[in-house]
From TrEMBL:
PANTHER family: HTH-TYPE TRANSCRIPTIONAL REGULATOR BETI (PTHR30055:SF234), HTH-TYPE TRANSCRIPTIONAL REGULATOR RUTR (PTHR30055). It comes from the Bacteria. SUPFAM superfamilies: Homeodomain-like, Tetracyclin repressor-like, C-terminal domain. It comes from Rhodococcus olei. Residues 8-68 form the HTH tetR-type domain. The keyword Transcription applies. This is TetR/AcrR family transcriptional regulator. Pfam families: TetR_N. The keyword Magnesium does not apply. Keywords: DNA-binding, Transcription, Transcription regulation.
Length: 191
């Protein structure tokens, strides 16, 4: 039993280190051998996490977004004001993406398997924004808007941020872009 616990702890530690490595440096240029060397483990240890480099990168990306989602949700726990909830939610999304280097985001955009993880998380975030807007309209804190439309526009902007199109057009980094998006959405919903 103690061996299993240590093994699980080591795998969790390796996954966290892998996430940090990939966020900082991207992944397309790294071989499995280079990843093993950087993490100070064997390739067979990496194969215990996933059967291929692509699956390893996908597992790390899922792990990153799962943790990011939990931290974003914690940022709005206990916040009652609908405007503050949306602002804090979108700003927290941007803050969670701050460690992701331009190279990681470019690699993510170029890889169908990993991009799907990001797009799925973006869709979940858009539904969450829609729910927050709907709650704000119901409570009378927001003017009557079509919540699904506002969430769709928000999601489209989130995808543009992910694809680095907002950075190219405006010079804003991801966190700054999410702050501006939060301001735009919350001010647009005001009574």
């Amino acid at each position: 039993m103690a061996t299993q616990v240590r093994g699980a702890a080591r795998r969790a530690q390796l996954l966290a280190q892998l996430v940090d490595l990939l966020l900082a440096e991207g992944f397309a240029h790294l071989t499995l051998e280079e990843i093993a060397g950087r993490l100070r483990c064997s390739k067979s240890t990496l194969y215990s996490l996933a059967a291929s480099k692509e699956q390893l990168v996908r597992a790390a990306t899922v792990h990153f977004f799962r943790g990011a989602t939990e931290r974003v949700e914690r940022s709005v726990d206990g916040v009652v004001d609908a405007r503050d909830r949306i602002r804090l939610y979108l700003e927290a999304v941007g803050e969670q993406l701050r460690p992701a280097s331009a190279r990681f985001m470019a690699d993510l955009a170029d890889n169908d398997v990993v991009r799907e993880v990001y797009e799925r998380n973006t869709a979940i975030a858009a539904r969450r924004v829609q729910d927050l807007i709907t709650d704000g309209v119901r409570s009378g804190e927001f003017r009557d808007v079509h919540a699904a439309f506002v969430a769709d526009v928000t999601a489209a902007t989130m995808v543009r941020i992910q694809r680095r199109q907002v950075r190219e057009a405006t010079g804003l980094d991801d966190a700054q872009a999410y702050q501006e998006l939060a301001s735009l959405v919350t001010n647009g919903l005001a009574m």
